[in-house]
Amino acid sequence: MRSAVIVVLLFVLGHVAPVLAAPVLMSADWAKEACEAWNRDPVLTDKLVETGWIRNDKGRGFKVMQVFREDCGDQPTAELRVALKDGKALCVYGGAVETKQLDSGADYLMFAETERWQEMGRGDYGPMKAMAFGRLGFKGPKMEAMGNMGPFSNFLLLVGKVESDVSSCPK
């Protein structure tokens, strides 16, 4: 009997623990994992150099991307910073929001309801449809973004690649 209880407990823990360990979507912990996932994606790391996107950093040496879930508030909850390193557009910071003032000519703010982030993360639709139908809010250099729809799509897919918990809002 005792060994049966232990087996059941191990089974439950094995299936529940990974879910509990997932960071809250759009939290600082999620952003750290998204940053690591960014650096494993050759479309993001290579194409954003080829198109010149990474060089528009207003002389700071990095671009800022902030995100949030609209159904959790109206302020950014996670930040990624991307810089040109070793010929690649690498995420050099993922975490809590630190940049107080975004530069609208270089930086990005993106927001959507949780359900919409999940849809984009699954690849149900890309950034053009998301923005055209008001499913993704966006502030930043629009023409620059339009010229980088392929990489922008890959950024949205990171939402689906990085495990996350949507049962609560980021703090």
Description:
- The chain has 171 residues and is α+β, with helices and mostly antiparallel strands.
- The protein is 43% helix and 18% strand.
- The longest helix is centred in the first third of the chain and has 20 residues, at 2-21.
- The radius of gyration is 18 Å and the shape is globular.
What's the arrangement of secondary structure elements?
Elements: H1 2-21, H2 28-39, H3 42-50, E1 63-69, E2 78-85, E3 88-95, E4 108-112, H4 114-122, H5 127-132, E5 137-139, H6 142-146, H7 149-161
Parallel strand pairs: 1-4
Antiparallel strand pairs: 1-2, 2-3, 4-5
Helix pairs in contact: 3-7, 4-7
Unreliable residue stretches: none
Total of helices? 7
Strand ordering within the main sheet: 3-2-1-4-5
Classify the beta-strand content into a percent band. 15-25%
| End-to-end C-alpha gap | 43 Å
Q: Compute the gyration radius: what is it?
A: 18 Å
Shape, per Cα inertia axes: globular
Order of helices and strands: HHHEEEEHHEHH
* Secondary-structure-derived class: alpha+beta
- What's the average pLDDT? 91
Quick structural gist:
The protein has helices at residues 2-21, 28-39, 42-50, 114-122, 127-132, 142-146, 149-161, and strands spanning 63-69, 78-85, 88-95, 108-112, 137-139.
Which features does this protein show?
171 residues; alpha+beta; five-stranded mixed β-sheet; 7 helices; 5 strands; 18% strand
